[in-house]
Amino acid sequence: MDLSERFLNEKLGIDEKVIRLVNEAEEEVSDKFKELDDIMAYNQYKVLKVFQDNHMADLYFNWNTGYGYDDPGRDMIEKVYAGVFGTEKALCRPTIVNGTHALSLILLGLLRPGDELIYCTGTPYDTMKTVIGISDYEEGNGSLKDYGVTYKQVDLLSDGRIDLEGVRNAIGPKTKMVTVQRSTGYGWTKAKTVEEIKEWAELIDSIDPGLIKMVDNSYGEFADYLEPTEVGCDIMASSLIKNPGGGLALTGGYIAGKAELIDRIQYRMTCPGIGGECGLTFGQTRSMFQGLFIGPRVVNGAIKGATVLGRAFEKLGFEVCPGSKDKRSDIIQAVRLGSKDKVVAFCQGVQEAAPIDSHVTLEPWKMPGYEDEVVMAAGAFVQGSSIELSADAPIREPYNVYFQGGITYEHSKFGVLKALDSLYKKGYINLI
Which H or E run contains 32? Predict the structure, then answer.
């Protein structure tokens, strides 16, 4: 054992068999790391160029009070986000509370009574179901259903790809927006690659170029060389406490896309006649800028950790999604554990790997916005940050667990070690 491995064993209590398994898994996927490093470098230089082209200066770290008129930091962070994602305009605000809020601003800002929304990647993420009105619907709660917007979904093909012919057949005279969810969510399918999204966008344009093409880009930023808005998508959104915040943004969300769409969405964000002209950044711009700047490196470490996790569980005979050799398009690694007890043990191990609240013993609970009880490991510097090391799972069959994040690769790898160590010491896996 080298010194770091000895420290893991003697000071952090990781069993030697677990260390050996993870080291073997790491070696077996090391060929993937070269490509991941090139993607990281490309995105790092892209972000750097946008900063330099916009003449970034520390004056943009200051903030205003009151209404926030002419807030230079707010205006610059939105110019930078638009530049990084290759769009005409962006909104990037600490007052957008999470990714679901950002996506709902798009839906409620652009869709009107009688319009139709089509999800082209099957069932949306749990919290989005409530926004649409297909789950936990309460009359008067302001969901799309309340406003007379209808909904369709096109399920994925058996191989996990977008059913392009099904999408073609689903589009009708009332269709206004078509949507792709890039990440797996709580499903069992690989994240949609940028190439798949490009093919989908080209199909939509061939049918009706006036349809709005939206992408839920959660967990996907900097996972590839290009973003969905650089291959034909009109609008996309996510949270700043996922990939683009780099673990430094304290809160917030972004929306990036065509100017005409952003201009309409901003009136939903505040109110008609005010739009994006008002709204403070509360002194958060420095951490938002710096988080974006280091985001490519942070995402790189998270994807490497997810890849090692996938390979380690493959070696133990578990089903994983994506496979360790598959092309990745987000930071999430799903593992099918098969029982509630294994899911809880896995997440307890990840919690014990955290720098914050590592002493907390996790139990499933009924979390607002979710259909089932959920267990979440999230000992983060920013509460709820899923670019920091975390794991979560709905307590429902077939008992899949979802692992993501890690501000550094070493910490993400430590999460892998602790999850396996927890399962091993509780007797749920056998190691030679």
Answer: helix 30-53
